[in-house]
Design goal:
- The complex is a heterotrimer of chains A (506), B (340) and C (339).
- Chain A is of the alpha/beta class.
- Chain A is built from 18 helices and 20 strands.
- In chain A, 33% of the residues lie in helices and 24% in strands.
- In chain A, the strands form four sheets. Chain A has a six-stranded mixed sheet with strand order 6-7-8-3-9-10, sandwiched between helices.
- Chain A is globular.
- Chain B has helices at residues 2-10, 12-30, 37-45, 48-62, 70-86, 92-117, 121-141, 156-163, 172-190, 192-202, 204-209, 214-240, 252-261, 273-292, 301-317, 321-330, and strands spanning 165-166, 170-171.
- In chain B, strands 1-2 form a two-stranded antiparallel sheet.
- In chain B, β1 (165-166) and β2 (170-171) form a beta hairpin.
- In chain C, 76% of the residues lie in helices and 1% in strands.
- In chain C, β1 (155-156) and β2 form a beta hairpin.
- In chain C, α2 packs parallel to α14 (263-282) and α4 (45-59) packs across α13.
- Classes of the chains: A alpha/beta (506), B mainly alpha (340), C mainly alpha (339).
Chain lengths: 506, 340, 339
């Protein structure tokens, strides 16, 4: 099956040539990794880089299409979680998956076969040793996120895991809890336990990791000891190879906005997942909103769109106060939103292209009966304008490629004739040709005077399309960029929390 | 043009039509009585209520829900009409109107809970089936007639609703059923409202993002379902000439079977009334045919139950990855993979 | 330990039944006689046993509406065999096997064929109901030997019947298995969080399959007890039992989404359900309102449960999102302090 592979001597776990595709979407294109015993390996990557996938394969949740996994130098098949658990691997998921109606102790000990009194003693000893105070009898549903993550950690520790995979463990922890976690990680290292540490926070990489792996577009682009890298080198590793690096001079003269009225104004808006956000989008411009997953950009957009409650602040469209409007009223006020997750929130998979195009506009087209003529006209108009590849108006959208599906979703968002359009990851998971088409569409919309808020994790895209840009980090706007300052490395750095003011501390 | 004809034949409804034709061939050969039109319609008369309710339970199931209380609403409607006419001395048609409103309200109540509190449709309609059959019994106690007797001797004008025969042989009930098929088809496939029902079933999130009030839409489907159960109750009462509280108690299984067999996926998002109507007729003919060939009525649920389980499992077996692997290992040819 | 008891969902149900009894007693003191109370409890034995079975399925997050039909057919088969002189243990054994077969078929349909449990069990319900008619030819099963019927009357110390005592022991045993053994805990785990269960290597499909199989067996036990208690079997025996025992579970604090509740709650709920009829008689209402009250109770409880759950999920989501925005504030604070 495979020629003898050269593996490093101290590698506890190695993978070679892992590929994985979901449907036609190729997520991993050949991953090689070596995890040394007792080391902390940081795994970083931009959004959509596929960071979670290799660890889920190691954990047996997914099966690789190709490639091999080696434990202590021997090829092993990890077909299901039970196999990985038996091999001493444990994944602490990013979102803790506890049993809400069971106690902490039951959660930690679930799945163990030994005598309960023995296990209880081991658990109590473990807690003592760690110095954690945890009420074993509390129901998991009442725990804070940090406490839930600790419980997940306990599960791994109780299993004498040799390899612990921590998937963004600090994303919901407070500062002190993070310090606590680091102390634990150091302790585990001393015991010879290996750790794969997935994170967005570059600071943490330098604080606790021995080795760093950078994933981009399904492959590992950088691999080496942390001491070999600086922050800038990591940021560069996250960017595509032909990324344009920022030059200090600015050829364009700054645009004077004082005489324009913003089409969309968000004033100190706070909601669930973001805090104190202020921004303006003017007619005929694209405002890029960059940041990593979890920064709060989508939460901002969906809250504005009426999907969640507003905690404070205001939203204005063309000067009219639309704060807290329901989705329907927002649509009628001239704002539309193209959802981030096309599959979950965007397409009506079993319905045809025409139905997908007109879904938001039915009552405007006619009162009671479906206006099929108008539906046909609008659908054809958009199919032509966007060069959507379909066999006909009646093709089921589920059978279209990702790019064409996205075009239909964008068409729908335009069918309500909005003045403001929020695009959330509009080119995620679509092919290059469709991407080009979408960019053309955006340019056309700009020319027509639409105000566009472009949320994207693709820094290249933001650079190419935006007239201005802002970045969000942990729910706050942390930096604003004028046109000449928008560059991939600037955006990437800011998205990872490395801003000029906080370069020392972030 | 050829493509269109081809498409027509590949559809599920075509399959159902073939099934019905087969039933006629098989049962007709086994027992010529089956082909007697009068006999056929007479046998179908008792089943029309199921056919009618299936049309509107289709609406509910397209949104991804389920309704198992319709049978109880049939009985409740029946006894309400009886009691209102017999003991409250209301005009029979006024009594019918009140009963219709009552049925719609019963459906709407469950629909409200499903749409606005997120409770599972199966469970709340289970409670509803209890509640409404209990209420039916309570209503029957308000009458001077004993509950087991039921209420009879309805005016001819009322009974004419079901008993009149149009074109000599076609019972009025069937005409009403046909009219309802047309109406439900138009509503579901030609109105904005009907389109919204589909959208809410295919992807409630995307529907919300499109500004559709999914909760109102979902609730309304249960209301229509309840209304259809009322209509069925009135028709049945008129046909049998008796109002009884326990009418319709055995309808739940055939209704769900008809809807599922008719091509509506219980996951929601696809289906249609034509399919449900054809499937209901197919099930109806199955029962008549088996009945004529000696199968006693109480056994008729067996083939219906088997039909339900087999249909759904075949549909799902197609999506179970383990079973797929089992079959694909045998077929070693390359399969063209679909995009996305 | 006492604290845990006081906070459990079961305590609400127990409190409910106590208050219910006291309330009825206030209207009609005759209700609170010990003879009557024992009558209420003893008469709930069939509901109790079947409720325990269905509780297993509900705890894993599924549903089974064929238990009434299973009860009916096992009652019909075992009573016919006893009437015709077969040894009792053969008849009972046959009944249990039938229950196991039905439960196994349900489990197979749900876990392998991936048919949703409501539809699978609805279909099986129809089939089995029809099979009862096939087996009995539509006739009642009567003339059951007196000795067999008398079993139901046997009492310990003149109060609790041996049947009900057995039911209580069953509840205790099953409860201990579900809460103390490793495999027993899988049921609640699967119902509580399927993703988490898979991650921990718990065999989700096998667990659900086992729940359905056991449910069928316990429904069969119910059928056997039914024959003894009622004394004869009609072809519609057990009709509607599924609704009653689901209601019993819900009343006993078991959540239909799975993972919550215990078989003790199912037992309490079954007692409540059985008592409703008698209660109606004692406070002067016709027992015709039985179904109405059951329906209302069921709807109230299920809706409240859904609302509470919804609120909890929303809360959790919001807390999670809010936590993400605090890191920056803390870092900034640290930074200013450190400078």
């Amino acid at each position: 099956m495979n020629e003898s592979v050269q593996l490093p001597d101290d590698a506890m776990l190695s993978v070679r040539g892992i590929t994985k595709a979901f449907g036609s979407n190729s997520v991993l294109k050949g991953i090689d990794m070596d995890i040394a015993k007792g080391s902390v390996v940081a795994l970083i990557g931009g959004n959509g880089a596929g960071k979670s996938t290799p660890v889920k394969i190691i954990m047996g949740i997914y099966q690789a299409d190709e490639g091999d996994v080696f434990l202590d130098g021997k090829a092993t098949k990890l077909g299901k979680p039970a196999a990985s658990l038996a091999a001493g691997i444990y994944l602490v998921p990013q979102e803790p998956m506890l049993f809400p109606n069971m106690t902490v102790e039951e959660n930690v000990l679930m799945g163990f076969m030994q005598k309960s009194s023995d296990l209880h003693k081991r658990l109590a000893d473990l807690l003592n040793h760690l110095g954690w105070k945890m009420d074993l009898n509390r129901k998991a549903a009442t725990l804070s996120i940090a406490e839930q993550q600790l419980v997940e950690l306990l599960r791994g520790l109780m299993r004498d895991a040799r390899l612990l995979i921590l998937d963004e463990p600090t994303s919901s922890l407070t500062f002190n809890e993070v310090e606590s976690l680091f102390a634990i990680v150091e302790d585990l290292k001393k015991k010879g336990i290996s750790i794969i540490y997935i994170t967005h926070r570059l600071t943490e990489v330098f604080q606790i990791a021995d080795q760093v792996l950078i994933m981009r577009d399904g492959v590992i682009t950088l691999d080496g000891p942390v001491s070999n890298f600086t922050r800038e080198m990591l940021v560069a590793g996250l960017l595509p190879p032909n990324a344009v690096i920022h030059r200090d001079q600015c050829e364009n003269k700054p645009v004077d906005y004082s005489s324009c009225k913003p089409a969309l104004e968000i004033d100190r808006l706070s909601g669930y997942g973001f805090c104190d956000v202020s921004l303006k989008v003017y007619p005929g411009e694209v405002l890029g909103l960059a940041g990593v997953v979890g920064a709060g950009r989508t939460e901002l957009a969906t809250t504005v769109f009426g999907r969640d409650a507003v905690k404070g602040g205001k939203v204005y469209i063309d000067g009219k106060d639309v704060t807290g409007f329901s989705t329907r009223r927002m649509l009628d006020s001239g704002l539309n939103y193209v959802a981030e997750d096309r599959f979950l929130n965007g397409i009506f998979r079993k319905s045809d292209v025409a139905a997908n195009t007109t879904a938001a506009n039915l009552d405007n087209m006619s009162k009671f009966f479906i206006n099929f003529r108008e539906e046909r006209r609008i659908t054809d108009q958009f199919i032509k304008a966007f060069r959507t590849k379909v066999t006909g108006r009646d093709q089921i959208i589920g059978s279209l490629s990702g790019g064409n599906q996205q075009k239909v979703v964008i068409a729908r968002s335009l069918s309500t004739n909005p003045k403001v359009l929020i695009l959330d990851e509009p080119t995620r998971g679509i092919d290059a040709a469709a991407r080009g088409d979408v960019y053309t569409i955006i340019e056309q919309l700009k020319a027509q005077g639409l105000a566009i808020l472009l949320i994207s994790s693709d820094m290249e895209e933001i650079v190419e399309l935006s007239d201005r840009a802002v970045t969000m980090f942990c729910g706050h706007i942390n930096q604003e960029f004028a046109k000449c300052d928008i560059s991939q490395d600037n955006l990437m750095a800011a998205a990872f929390g490395v801003t000029e003011g906080s370069a020392k501390n972030a | 043009m050829v493509n269109k004809v081809k498409k027509l034949f590949v559809r599920w409804e075509a399959f159902l039509i073939i099934v019905i034709v087969l039933e006629f061939l098989i049962f007709g050969t086994l027992s010529p009585k089956f082909l007697n039109i009068r006999r056929l319609f007479s046998g179908l008369n008792q089943f029309i209520p199921v056919c009618i309710i299936s049309l509107f339970v289709t609406f509910v199931m397209i949104t991804g829900g389920i309704d198992i209380q319709a049978g109880s609403i049939v009985g409740l409607t029946s006894i309400m009409v009886g009691v209102l006419w017999h003991d409250a001395n209301l005009n029979i048609f006024v009594a019918c109107a009140i009963a219709l409103i009552g049925g719609a309200l019963c459906g709407a109540l469950s629909g409200f809970f499903v749409a606005y509190t997120g409770v599972q449709p199966m469970v709340v309609t289970l409670g509803g089936s209890f509640l409404y059959s209990g209420m039916a019994l309570a209503v029957s106690n308000l009458s001077s007639n004993a509950a087991y007797q039921g209420i009879s001797d309805f005016p001819e004008a009322f009974r004419a609703i079901s008993k009149t025969e149009v074109f000599g042989a076609v019972p009025m009930q069937f005409v009403i059923f046909f009219a309802l098929v047309v109406i439900s088809y138009i509503v579901l496939h030609r109105t904005n409202y009907g389109r919204k029902i589909f959208l809410c079933g295919v992807n409630p999130n995307a529907a919300e993002f499109s500004g559709i009030n999914t909760r109102a839409v979902v609730m309304s489907t249960y209301m229509f379902s309840g209304l259809s159960a009322s209509i069925a109750g009135i028709l049945l009462t008129a046909y049998l000439g008796t109002a009884k509280a326990d009418m319709g108690s055995e309808y739940t299984l055939p209704i769900i079977t008809a809807v599922v067999l008719g091509g509506t996926s219980n996951l929601g998002g696809s289906g249609g009334v034509i399919g449900s109507a054809l499937a209901a007729l197919a099930v109806g003919f199955l029962r008549i045919g088996l009945g004529l060939n000696g199968l006693s009525t109480q056994y008729l649920d067996i083939p219906v139950g088997i039909l339900l389980v087999v249909t759904v499992s075949l549909r799902f077996a197609g999506t179970n990855p383990k079973l797929r692997k089992l079959f694909s290992r045998k077929k070693r040819q390359t399969v063209v993979s679909k995009g996305n | 330990m006492l604290k845990k008891l006081l906070h459990s969902r079961e305590i609400t149900s127990i409190a409910f039944i106590i208050f219910m009894f006291l309330g009825v007693g206030a209207i009609n003191p005759a209700f609170l006689s010990s003879a009557n109370i024992w009558l209420c409890l003893n008469s709930s034995v069939v509901y109790t046993v079947v409720a325990v079975g269905i509780a297993l399925v509900i705890i894993t997050g599924e549903i089974d509406v064929s238990v009434g039909a299973t009860l009916g057919i096992t009652a019909a088969v075992s009573s016919t065999m006893i009437r015709d002189g077969q040894p009792w243990f053969v008849a009972i054994g046959a009944a249990l096997l039938i229950g196991l077969a039905i439960g196994t078929i349900n489990g197979f349909g749900v876990t392998v064929l991936k048919v949703p449990s409501i539809i699978m069990t609805l279909g099986i319900n129809g089939i089995v109901r029809g099979l009862i008619y096939v087996f009995t030819n539509g006739k009642w099963v009567e003339n059951i030997p007196f000795d067999y019927k008398n079993l139901a009357q046997g009492r310990l110390l003149g109060s609790i019947t041996y049947f009900y005592l057995g039911a209580i022991l069953l509840i205790v045993a099953v409860h201990l298995i579900l809460t103390r053994t490793k495999r027993g805990k899988y049921l609640a785990a699967v119902g509580d969080n399927i993703g988490g269960s898979t991650l921990l290597g718990i065999p989700v499909d096998m667990t659900k399959f086992a729940a359905f199989a056991l449910c069928g067996v316990l429904a069969a036990v119910g059928g056997v007890l039914y024959v003894s208690r009622v004394g004869f079997v009609t072809p519609i025996a057990g009709n509607g039992y599924e609704m009653k025992v689901i209601a019993a579970c819900v009343l006993g604090g078991i959540s239909l989404s799975g993972g919550v509740g215990s078989v003790i709650g199912a037992g309490v709920g079954a007692a409540i359900m059985a008592s409703i009829s008698r209660i109606l008689v004692f406070i002067g209402f016709s027992s015709d309102y039985d179904d109405t009250i059951t329906g209302v109770l069921l709807i109230i409880i299920v809706v409240s449960d859904a609302l509470i759950r919804r609120r909890a999920v929303e809360q959790a989501r919001r807390v999670r999102l809010s936590a993400k925005t605090q890191h920056v504030a803390a870092v900034r604070k640290e930074a200013t302090v450190g400078e």
